[in-house]
Design brief:
The chain contains 4 helices and 2 strands; from the N terminus they run αββααα. Strands 1-2 form a two-stranded antiparallel sheet. The longest helix has 20 residues.
Length: about 80
């Protein structure tokens, strides 16, 4: 994914104490604009599939957790 962001010019690198830090520059419009209108994505279909699978795994994990979102919201209410 970093390669795709770097390709469209959205990736910024910084080195601090010999550690490489990466940030996404959202002001760069390489990932949206014309690509959104044509339905093209700077990410490969494999990368998007892996992302969707990871999100499904996270959703399944949350569904199996002992704390339900509705219960958590009730506990946080004043």
């Amino acid at each position: 994914m970093l390669g795709a962001l770097d390709t469209v010019g959205m990736l910024e690198r910084t080195t601090l104490a010999e550690v490489h830090l990466y940030a996404v520059n959202l002001e760069v419009r390489g990932a949206d604009g014309a690509d959104e209108r044509t339905g093209c994505s700077p990410f490969s279909s494999v990368a998007l599939g892996e992302f969707d699978a990871a999100m499904a795994d996270i959703e399944a994990l949350l569904a199996r957790s002992s704390v339900r979102l509705a219960e958590a919201a009730e506990e946080d209410a004043p």
